[in-house]
Amino acid sequence: MVRLTSELIDDSKQYINAVNDRELNLRGCKIPAIENLGGTRNQFDTIDFTDNDIRKLDNLPTLSRLRSLLFHNNRIQQIQPTIGNALPGLTMLILTNNNICELGDLEPLASLPKLEYLSLIGNPVVHKPQYRLFVIFKMPQVRVLDFKRVRLAERTAAKSMFKGSRGKALRKEVVKKSRLIEADEPQPVQTATLPPEDALRIKEAIASAKSLREVEQLQQMLQSGHIPGKSAAGNGAAPTGDDEAEMETEH
Questions:
Q1: Given 3.40.140.80, 3.80.10.10, 3.30.565.10, 3.30.390.50, which CATH number is that of 6-174?
Q2: In this structure, are residues 32 and 183 in contact, taking their beta carbons and an 8 Å threshold?
Q3: pTM, rounded to two decimals
């Protein structure tokens, strides 16, 4: 593990990136925690923390210039409640492949007034049934979620689901927060009980697989919450043809 010190910040790559932002590259340093970011002296538009070992998105000083934060492939479980005060100008937050588990863990992001681009792909929370509509409801400023543009129909559906007394009751029911697991504490193995018919479908699909590639494809389907041979209707809404699978990079 490498501590994030002022010396590491000064020694790391600093450059003007492809979108003309001043960027600090802290990729792959095995950083376990955010600290000493005051050492950046608020001089960067983008900070890249990809491929580190960070568990908490916290301990953030006020960085009014910062517009983009990249946290691909970390272990983030918890987000600083006052993140909006610390990063008032943040427009892009990429949290792909982290360990955010509950809808309540996302609530601090609603305090980011200028957040427009958000990716949570690869976090357990994306498999929650109300995930996308909840994020759209709580963060109306977000325009692109998980590389798909937020549609007007989705905003309408989100308000219908979560607004009013019935919506408040639903939020109380589904919005939970995770207990943070410390670095030296083993993570519990989560198990799920499948209905007998789904278990049978899985066994039949595995038995009929004729190659390693087919087995790997089955594994990917199961990880994404899909049961072989079962209609996708129970696994969330299918994407529409007009969804844009792209993250805009202009600011």
A1: 3.80.10.10
A2: yes
A3: 0.72
